[in-house]
Amino acid sequence: MTLLAVDVGAGTQDILLYQEGVPIEGSTKMVLPSQTMIVGNRISRARMAGRDIFLHGPIMGGGASTMAVRWHLAAGLRVFATPSAAATINNDLGQVEALGVIIQEDAPASAEIVETGDIDIPSLQRAFQLFDISLPKDIAVAVQDHGYSPGKPNRQVRFEHMVAAIRSGGSLDDFTFKECPQEMTRMVAVRDTLIKEGFEPFIMDTGPAAIFGAALDPRIEDPALIINFGNSHTIAAILSEGRICAVFEHHTSSMKGEKVREFTQKLCRGTLEEGEVFDDGGHGSYIGSLPDGVRSILITGPRRESFLSCEALKGAVAAAPAGDMMITGCLGLIKAWKKRDDLTG
């Protein structure tokens, strides 16, 4: 069995080629700029050249790409976009047009075309072909999808799906799908891209992928508090007997040492109120059936060092399954993919 696992973050896309019988430590892997960083850089180069741009392709993660669009407009240059590409900026296309983006299907002759999308299969194929490696049929991708439901904040939609998975049991299976929910627009877009390119897709959210991947660190003692400090988001979960039973998610930029300590202590005690994180600008919190305390604390994610150095969490261990923190999400994807035949929905 062979799988390409791609964990798409705000700053990097972490890639691991899994081959049955090949040790993970000896597997092919890459850490590359994420597509939102790449698209953002292409928009910035067009701005420096004084050129209008035309965004074309599926919805993708915002962040760097959306900020680059705003800078482009502020420079007095025009931004054109197809409806699907424009949804990257905001799912409400009326708000996108209010920013000054012109939504249309065809590219103006004078505009530089910038392709959108969370995964660039042709580029990955070229990169692997340089080393005589072909992409496998199965590709698993994790994206952080806020989802979209008119009338609801997107961060609320995302967290509602996470809570539903915990209430369904909280196991790895409950966070994976044979069919992506239609309101999870980034997941759907990645799935459709992979199918169009002739691959068999497997899609997860980055948060659970990182949590279950970090749990593969041999130093874990169950029950465990596992925290992923990503470039954009921080997710903390209590994992007991292979199931997530409590969780909160916030923006990493808002998580200073004292707040990390406060929120994680409340999570472990079962006293973190449902709306406390959401009202603080985060996604939310949920506490189900808690174990009697946690026996280990595992920290992962590209921003982990800043939190380890402030010693907000005494006894925390820097998780590095298979010796490499940057493939934590990929390992969660691989573990889920191995159980794909057990999925019912």
Instruction: Please state the oligomeric state of the protein chains shown.
Output: single chain
Shape: globular
Indicate the proportion of strand residues: 15-25%
For the record, the count of structural domains works out to: 2
Radius of gyration: 20 Å
The largest β sheet comes out as:
6 strands, mixed
What's the number of helices? 12
Low-confidence spans: none
Element order, helices and strands? EEEHEHEHHEEHEHHEHEEEHHEEHEH
Helix content: 25-40%
Would you tell me the structural class of the helices and strands? alpha/beta
Mean pLDDT, as a whole number? 92
Query: How many extended strands?
Result: 15
Strand order of the largest sheet: 13-12-11-10-14-15
Describe, in plain words, how this protein is organized in 3D:
By secondary structure, this protein is α/β, with parallel strands linked by helices. The protein has 2 domains: 1-28 and 133-345, no CATH class; 35-115, Rossmann fold (3-Layer(aba) Sandwich), CATH 3.40.50. Helix content is 33%, strand content 23%. The chain is built from 12 helices and 15 strands. The strands form 3 sheets. Strands 13-12-11-10-14-15 form a 6-stranded mixed β-sheet, with helices on both faces. A 5-stranded mixed β-sheet has the order 3-2-1-8-9, sandwiched between helices. Strands 6-5-4-7 form a 4-stranded parallel β-sheet. A hairpin with a 3-residue loop joins strand 1 and strand 2 (12-19). It is globular and about 65 Å long. The relative contact order is 0.15. The model has no long low-confidence stretch (mean pLDDT 92).
